[in-house]
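>> received
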Amino acid sequence: MCVIRIALIKGKLPDYLTAIADAVHNTLGRSYDNGEENIFRIIQQLEPDEPIFEKNYEGVSNTDNIMLLDILAPEQTVVLQQAFSAGLCSC
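>> returned
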């Protein structure tokens, strides 16, 4: 079983939230050896002042549209983790 928590700033349209949740779900199902039917998604919408993060972390300029993914999954290999990251970046 995998549990994915997607945290982002409040105010996004329902279609946007569904598209994000589906993209993460589909990519995780393809990348991890877990099966798409064993993935649960939680969308957490935060007030604008709740997330605390560096605006220039790792040299990347982050905006208030930042999204945090918290994935609880059985141990996966580095190769599978990299496949997930690459797959999600291509969405």
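>> Residues 14-31 form the longest helix (18 residues).
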